[in-house]
Amino acid sequence: MDATTNALNWFEISVSDIERAKKFYEEIFGITMETQDMMGMKMAYFPADMMGGKVGGGLVEGQFHKPSADGAKIYLNANPNLDDALGKVEAAGGQVTMPKMKISDEIGYMAFFMDTEGNAVAMHSNG
Fold first, then answer.
1. Quick check: 72 and 122 in contact, CB under 8 A?
2. CATH code assigned at 90
3. What span, in angstroms and rounded, lies between the C-alpha atoms of 35 and 44?
4. In terms of Cα–Cα distance, which of 67, 73, 66, 68 is closest to 98?
5. Structural domain contains residue 4
6. Is residue 3 assigned to a domain?
7. For residue 96, what pLDDT is reported?
8. CA-based, 20 to 30 A from 51: which of 8, 9, 13, 90?
9. What is the DSSP letter of 50?
10. CA distance 106 to 91
11. What count of other Cβ atoms lies within 10 Å of the Cβ of residue 62?
């Protein structure tokens, strides 16, 4: 790894109910997630242009995936303003655990939420 590569190349959010989790993330971000069964796991993918060097990831229900509020945090892209997605979290069945907070003028804003599966997840936006 060097400064010209992404530090992250794939992420998976563990879920216990793929359909419930898919509905939650589709609702808060206004996206459509494609689903697939792979290697005994159920997966739903966030939109990404993998051929363009963009980082991709998805939701995974499987034997080795257990939702948790502990551990690593991922920051999902909520540009241009995370107020839009964060404002949909509770209506979609999640819980805002840290409201939108300014990091700095250069970096932007962040917020934390619990999804429908019990995962602590973050959002980031420039505005």
1. no
2. 3.10.180.10
3. 4
4. 73
5. no
6. no
7. 98
8. 13
9. G
10. 31
11. 17
First CA to last CA across the chain, in angstroms? Answer: 30
* pLDDT value of position 78: 95
Q: What is the pLDDT, as a whole number, of residue 3?
A: 83
Q: Are 117 and 67 in contact (CB under 8 A)?
A: yes
Contacts of 118 (CB under 8 A, 6+ apart): 16, 67, 68, 69
Predicted confidence band of residue 64 (pLDDT cuts 50, 70, 90): very high
- Both tokens of 3, joined, read 């400064």
C-beta neighbour count of 112 within 10 angstroms: 19
**Residue (of 33, 13, 1, 5) closest to 75 by Cα position:** 13
The reply to whether 5 falls in a domain is: no
Which tokens hold the place of 67?
A: 């939702």
Average pLDDT score over the chain: 93
Q: What is the pTM of this model?
A: 0.88
Q: What is the domain extent for residue 70?
A: 10-125
- Structural domains of the chain, count: 1
Residue-wise pLDDT for 6-49, tens only, equals 778 899 999 999 999 999 999 999 999 999 999 899 999 999 98
